[in-house]
Amino acid sequence: MATAYLTHQQKVLRLYKKSLRHLESWCIFRDKYRFYACMMRARFDDSKEEKDLMKASMMLKAGEEEFWTNQHPQPYIFPESPGGTSYERYECYKVPEWALDHWHPSEKAQYPDYFSKREQWKQLRMQSWDKEAKKNNFKKHNMQLQTSPMTSTCDVMENL
């Protein structure tokens, strides 16, 4: 999957945020962290007005290298973030939606409003799915008619 190109400003902002996050890992006490965070902000502000893009790019590269050498060996990771202790913790307990179709009628009777709306949504989904499938089949059929006998089916699938 292609990622978007980052501008120079976005790269600098991401470097600044990464640096502050790693600084939090280095400084246990909040007052010490604030002191060093203000010093870091001053360093970024000093180079904020640089007009020469080549020099700014070199400064960014030097900053990234400095970050790499000074990063924390075991940075703090938020629990719900990727790599955190609680990331996707409850994914295994999520029941798929189709499991509700297999409930006993007495269980469904306990939630009549929910299941009546659910049936309406299922009907709407089926109707819209039929329309979308017809539209896609029509488009696919037209694509196959427009291709010459020399084109392979792989070329047709790439155009979809």
TrEMBL record:
Per the record, the GO terms for biological process are: mitochondrial electron transport, NADH to ubiquinone
Q: What top-level branch of life does the organism fall under?
A: Eukaryota
Q: How does it sit in the membrane?
A: Peripheral membrane protein
GO CC entries:
mitochondrial inner membrane
Assembly: Mammalian complex I is composed of 45 different subunits.
Family per record: Belongs to the complex I LYR family.
Name of the featured protein = NADH dehydrogenase [ubiquinone] 1 beta subcomplex subunit 9
Q: What is the lineage of its organism?
A: Eukaryota, Metazoa, Chordata, Craniata, Vertebrata
Question: Which gene specifies this protein's sequence?
Answer: Ndufb9
